Hints:
Chain A has helices spanning about 10-30, 35-55, 70-80, 95-115, 125-155, 160-165; strands at about 1-5, 85-90, 170, 175-180. Chain A is mainly alpha-helical and about 180 residues long. In chain A, about 30% of the residues are buried.
Amino acid sequence: MIIRKVWDPVVRVFHWSLVAGFAANALFTDPEEWLHRNIGYVVLGLVAVRVVWGMSGTRFARFSSFPPDPAAALAQVTDMATGRRRVHLGHTPLGALMIYNLLVTMVVIGISGWMMTTLTWFGVEWVEELHEAAVTWAEISVVVHILAVVWESRRTGVNLPRAMVTGYKRIPDESLFTESS
Amino acid sequence: MLRRLRPYGLILLIAVQLLCAAAFLSDSVGDLAGGGASVFDRHQTIEYVATLSLLIAIAFEAQLLLQLLRREAHLERGMSIAAGALNDIIEEHFRTWGLTPSEQDVARFLIKGCDIAEIARLRGSAEGTVKAHLNAIYRKSGVSGRAALISFLIEDLMGEPLVAPAQ
Amino acid sequence: MQMKPLFAVMAIALGLTGGIARAADEASLTDEKKAEITAIMVEQGYEVRSVQIEDGMYEVYAIKDGKTFELYLDDDLKMVERSGDGD
Lengths: 181, 167, 87
């Protein structure tokens, strides 16, 4: 077993805070209420912190270590098709695509939500519809994300959710390594 | 000459069809939940058929995509015509023998001349796993080792046995 | 092929989240009703932004004196509830 430190505290706290915030607003809080709006603003703040950290933080937190790369994503799918076991130390190429998708979607949700509180856009239907559509898209993405993480964990033998909690990836010895950036 | 294929178009098609299937499905669920229509009127039935055929199409396309990727994993850019023909024969036999994707990958590395340690490294598996794959390959194909596998394929390519059969 | 169950789950998840969200009653609000409701609200001094159906009642997003309001009207178009900045 090879053990490598991968996720710093900022990345980990961000990830799970985002999970809590999104779950709270998508499932529990009343959209009309103060709490819903403020959790939304907190989520926007979290994304802002992650973006800054992505440009200035530790190696695997940086966006440059997981750029959007269709060829690499295709290579990852090829690994799945051929039964090869390649492990990425940081985010995988497909994981990267999901992350950018979620970050952008959270921003769309947050901003459209804020717009609804302003006099200019209050009651304007497309804003509310955009907000709801973005939330539905986020929910679908989250389901896919969870399925994908479970699938990848089983495929590569690396417990990914655990790694996002402890910060360490425990990798089977034989694995094909790709050190990103 | 064979070019490197990057099946982005196929992937885009699958993605679009997934979205369409989701739209139809959610429409059906919405109609049924809203109590606006009975379960099997014409509108509903068309939506069910559309959703089902989209999902089946997606399944076939995904299978095709994976096969394409498996082939691309071993083709070199600018392969000669002869190598291309050999590749077709290899694929046909793999299909006939019913090799799993992993077994196919191992067999191809074998044909290329890699030993067990190299194959394990290239695939990120343990050597024991590779040996298990090799056993399955030999069992399914009925050949007894690397050399036998390669002559089998070349014989096929040339259309006749390499050595004249004993009379 | 091991991907089939994954596809099935994804397809169902995709469909259901959308469907459940849209199981609301888009169909029953006619343009005439909207115009009628808008007229009543404008008469009371509101600027009407949108009229929808929510929870079996008519929901109106409106503005009055620079403050935002959500108003709920019953079938007889009587105001049942009002909430928003102004209250």
